[in-house]
Amino acid sequence: MLPDPRLSAYAQRQAMCRTLLIVMASILLAACGKGGPEKDKAAETIALVPVEAATATARPIDASYSGTATLEADREADVVAKTSGVLLRLLVEEGDAIRQGQVLARLDDASPRLSLAKAEATLHKLKADYRRADEMFGRKLLSLQEHDKIKFDLDNQRAVHDLSRLELSYTNVIAPIDGVIGKRMVKEGNLIQINQPLFHIVDFDPLLGVLNVPERELNILKPGQPVSMSVDALPGQRFPGVIERISPVVEAASGTFRVTCRFNATLQTLKPGMFGRIDVVYDRKQDALAIPRGALIEEDGETAVYLVVDAPPPADVKPKDGEAVKAPAADAAAAAAGPTLHAQRRVIHIGFSDSEYIEVRDGLKAGDRVITVGRNAVRDGTLVQVLDMAPPPASSVPVAEKTP
């Protein structure tokens, strides 16, 4: 029986594919094996992680607590109408500074004025009746009961007259406190109802900022301590203040207590509603060993940093016969280029801190360099290149081509 020619061609193609795969695998193995582990080690040695570093130095540092708060006025009030009537005239506008007792607006007073006139007429009549009744009672021409009734009517009318006078005074809208008109809520010609809001008055001096402080700071912050504040609306400026009062109660839900800080609104620069960042300085050290806050690493319940230290020189390789063999060419090139640096993890104990620096009480000494940028990309022993250092001068001839 003759073989099928189609099967023979298929078998030939399979054989050719297997041959090609074997040849390619042999080439790849030869390429990977060239240089061996020495080449891999050289490439790994040369790979440096770029970082930025800062030096631990002695500097003044403040122990402070920082928090945020929205400024609010210590005194503010809504001025409401105490009587009804048409608003005839507005005497102030938004932004005007006013004094307590100043007239802000006037309502139509025709009806209250007529009521007062009627009450005055009735009061005069009853006064005359009482004088006659008093004379008749003195001559025993009037009983005690009738005399007392006329006196009661007179006293009642006096109260009606005083009430009418008070209603008339309500047509002048009076400022209850000093401050600034923050908002006008009515217009001339509006029909005003009793208890309708007319103006909102804000007293800009002082302004208060309320901090919700964790309970661990309860024994540190005290009334009268100085504070300083910066606001987003006025960059580059700081405003001094003082702790006005401290709440003695810790809120169970949040574990915080209220600290009220007072600020004087100089020239009305600060406004209610501004968002401020408040720093409370409660202690100061003049020569604390400090590093930037950006160098800290919090992991495994420890506070650590990565130091930049000199890496040890490459070790010579000794074969079995005891003869020293030089390091690979890549290691020699790295050594010739300059000292190699690597990262070293160091656990530290910290103390005071401010917005930029933090005190190191144990674990570092003055002059140690810590990684500030790139610390998340390194581990203990990682080779690094400090970017703020001047690079070594480049050689005109590659190291591999130098001759002894």
Task: List its salient traits.
elongated, conserved putative lor/sdh protein from methanococcus maripaludis s2 fold, six-stranded mixed sheet, Helix Hairpins, 5 helices, alpha+beta, Elongation Factor Tu (Ef-tu), domain 3, disordered N terminus, 404 residues
Give a topology summary.
Elements: H1 5-33, H2 36-46, E1 49-55, E2 57-70, E3 72-80, E4 85-90, E5 97-98, E6 103-107, H3 110-138, H4 144-169, E7 172-174, E8 179-184, E9 191-192, E10 197-214, E11 226-231, E12 239-246, E13 256-263, E14 275-292, E15 297-299, E16 302-310, H5 329-337, E17 341-347, E18 349-353, E19 357-362, E20 369-373, E21 383-386
Parallel strand pairs: 1-21
Antiparallel strand pairs: 1-20, 2-14, 3-10, 4-6, 4-9, 5-8, 6-7, 8-10, 10-13, 11-12, 11-14, 12-13, 14-19, 15-16, 16-17, 17-21, 18-19
Please give the CATH class of the largest domain: Mainly Beta
Helical content stands at: 25-40%
Give the percentage of residues in beta strands.
35-45%
Might you state the CATH topology name of the largest domain? conserved putative lor/sdh protein from methanococcus maripaludis s2 fold
Q: Give the termini distance in whole angstroms.
A: 76 Å
- Over the alpha carbons, how many angstroms does the gyration radius reach? 45 Å
Please state the second-level CATH architecture of the largest domain.
Beta Barrel
Give the count of structural domains. 3
Shape verdict: elongated
The major beta sheet can be summarized as: 11 strands, antiparallel
Tell me the number of strands. Answer: 21
How many helical stretches? Answer: 5
- Mean pLDDT across every amino acid position: 80
Structural class: alpha+beta
Uncertain segments: 1-7, 39-45, 329-337, 390-404
